[in-house]
Amino acid sequence: MVRQGNPGARGAGPKASPGARTGKRPARTPGKAVYRRRRIFAAAILLLVAALAVAGFTALTSAFSGGPAAAPATAPATAPATREAAPATTGPAASATATPTAGTGCDQKLLTVTAATDKRVYAAGENPLLSLKVTNNNEVPCEVNLGTSQMEYLVTSGSDRIFSSMDCQAESTELVKTIAPGRSETANFPWNRKRSTQGCKVVDAEPGGGGAYYVFTARLGNKTSPKAVFQLS
After folding, report:
1. Is 5 inside a domain boundary?
2. Other C-beta atoms within 10 Å of 173: how many?
3. Which are the contacts of 123, defined by CB distance < 8 A and separation ≥ 6?
4. If DSSP codes are grouped into helix, strand and coil, which group holds residue 166?
5. Residue 130 and residue 118: Cα distance in Å, rounded?
6. CA gap 109, 86 in Å, rounded
7. How many Å apart are CA 101 and CA 142, to the nearest integer?
8. pLDDT tens track for 20-31
9. 190 lies in which domain range?
10. Is residue 172 part of a domain?
């Protein structure tokens, strides 16, 4: 008689693996290429953080220190002094009794004053330009006061006093300039062909034209120029 064995005692085929019972596959170990990429990525992140930290520190330092110093503004250049001056003619009269100032070794007698006009004959309605020139004939520089307090532009016709720049001068000024040996300084005055009187009183009459002759005399301090003759049409 044949015994029937117990299948449960002997086992019924091979045993199932744990994975077969759960349905999950065992985890795989990352390869070397993956680790290498992770290290490169981590290094890049560290470099970026370091760069941002340095930039932030630099910006903060600049903010506290006020940033780079600005270049100083360039001052505008001073305009050169002109050799032409027109004395004002709208105010009370001023005296001119002072004389040109001579520097050390400067002989006042060698300072000369001359008068000139820009034309000899002026058409109707054309205004003459009167010029006063002082020349230093010394061998050394001389300081000369060329202020309006020292100047007078005088126009006459015979015994008739036609115009003086001192009659209506607004204010008297001082202007001391150094004139080199043999050099000159010139001051110009445009005359509007109007009469003037001492005290700047109103004058209705005007100088006659029609070819009349007039004499211009320039004075600087106590020095008076030779006469300059011109004609008004």
Report:
1. no
2. 17
3. 233
4. coil
5. 7
6. 26
7. 8
8. 444 555 555 556
9. 108-232
10. yes
